[in-house]
């Protein structure tokens, strides 16, 4: 079922096939089976945390 193998094999695959590219345009980002995976910081915007949003939703 899992083509990448066990957990350790998956960790090795992601470590070897990930490349950090901050501010890469998001339309260039895609994940394809056994291809390079682009990771990094792509968007920087202020947003409320989950806890803040949940408290607001509860009316606290």
In brief, what are we looking at here?
The chain is an alpha+beta fold. It is 33% helix and 10% strand.
List the strand order in the largest sheet: 1-2
What would the average pLDDT be, to the nearest integer?
Answer: 86
Radius of gyration: 17 Å
Order of helices and strands: HEEH
Q: What general form does the structure show?
A: flat
* Individual helix count: 2
Query: Into which percent range does the helicity of residues fall?
Result: 25-40%
Largest beta sheet, briefly? 2 strands, parallel
Q: Which structural category fits the helices and strands?
A: alpha+beta
| Contiguous uncertain segments of 5+ residues | none
Assembly level = single chain
Strand content: 5-15%
Describe, in plain words, how this protein is organized in 3D.
- This protein is an alpha+beta fold and 60 residues long.
- It has one domain (7-58).
- Helices cover 33% and strands 10% of the residues.
- It contains two helices and two strands, in the order αββα.
- The chain has helices at 7-17, 50-58; strands at residues 18-20, 37-39.
- Strands 1-2 form a two-stranded parallel sheet.
- The longest helix has 11 residues, at 7-17.
- The radius of gyration is 17 Å and the shape is flat.
- It starts with 6 loop residues before the first helix and ends with a helix.
- The mean pLDDT is 86.
């Amino acid at each position: 079922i899992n083509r990448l193998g066990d957990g350790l094999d998956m960790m090795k695959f992601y470590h070897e096939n990930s490349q950090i590219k901050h501010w890469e345009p998001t339309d260039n980002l895609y994940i394809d089976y056994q291809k390079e995976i682009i990771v990094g910081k792509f968007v920087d915007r202020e947003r409320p945390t989950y806890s803040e949003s949940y408290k607001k939703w509860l009316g606290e």
